[in-house]
Write a structure and sequence with these properties.
Growth Hormone, Chain: A, MFS, MFS_dom, two-stranded antiparallel sheet, 2 strands, 17 helices, mainly alpha, single chain
Length: 473
Amino acid sequence: MDDHQKRNLTFFTIGLIFMLSGIEYAVILPTIWKYLQILEAPPYFLGLGLSAFSLSGLLTGPIFGLWSDRSKTTKSIILFSNVFEIAGNFMYFVGYSKWLLLCSRLVAGIGAGAGSSIFGFLTRSTRPEERAGIFAAIMAARQAGLLIGPAFNLFLRLCDFKLGPFVVNKYTSPGIFMCLLWVLLQFAVLAMYWDVPPIGSEEGAAGAVNLEMKREGEEAPLMGSDEEPVNTYRALGTDRSESSASCEMQPVNGASNPFKNFSASREFLREEVVVLLTAQFITLFNQTALETMVTPLTQRYFGFGELGNSLMYSLCGVEVILGFFFVRWLSSKVADRAVLAVGLVICCTACIWCLVFLCNPRGGYGWELSAFIIGVFLQLLGLPFVAVSQVSLFSKVTAEKTQGFSQGVRRSVGGLATILGPLWAGGLTNNLYIMLGMMLALLLMITVMTALSYDRLTEPRAVQCEHSSDSGG
């Protein structure tokens, strides 16, 4: 099997990983509210349960990313992290108490931290011009999981039997079901995942020769292409030829330690990086806050149960998948920063709609349901635009050699948002004006920040060489 086939199978396996994460979310979210009520948990436990998963991912993401940057491997990291997914979902299945349920989400969240290693691998294995399309496809795989998940709920909700000392019902069955799926994924990773060389461009053959020469200790420059080497980035206001020439020797001299002379402040405290991290935080904060609000809201106003919520999430999945494929096509025609700006405008419009029509619904059941559907539609419409563009831009304005760690930081910022979002919404389900008002204020802030920094959101921009810290770069 050649590297091209291995690369395709590896990308397919990554898609499976993200699909399973979507399925897990879709089968657990519609039932966890009732599950907690059966275990006599107070209402705020809903926010705690949803945030616990994100807390683990926040803490472990940079660690897994650091591991992958130093080892240049991701397969072992994925296999290790999936063990926590298996254990966490089994704990969710057991679910004797509200505290065990909370701990189950904490343990399962550790497995989600491997996403930073995966995004780092994808960055190193793709060209900048194709990266947004690859990211869109991977994110669409997660949304496919969100779409498929409710279909599994249709039969999981019919479970009513005992498995030894354990009760299997519509609330515990998602845990054992996901436990089995993650076990099967372990075998898929063992069989179909390879840490293939980061080649994937037209000059793949020349790149393979150069990689072999490096292994033999020969210091040979990259040949066969006029493009910049993978560890260089264009910079505004610098001598580009001098920067490129000095960086060409870096992969040979510093391959053993990608963090030699690494500076977190130089890497992350740049205007364009701060804007993208802020966009990551605000969009995920708003998304998780709305997701937390939706289940109690549909129960209160529309009488939705587990089946109604599962069907709603299924329809939402269809919209988001179509949105990701549209963004995948659009990213080949339009710059990432333009896609980001469009997405933020749509998100602002969605939040304004919800603030006006959902906080104090009037006009009867039909109008209230229509207003709710439009609000959800607009919110989901903007999600693919923002999600794909900010991930793609972030991978291009940060150093490729430390991409796993950088993606871990980005995902930790997102993890913090997914912790605070449910906590914010969980306590304000009866005060939607306050909840949505804050969300709108945050969206307007990041929209203004993006507009002011629009010219700096170019890709790639910063030269990242290991010796650059000596010159203050």
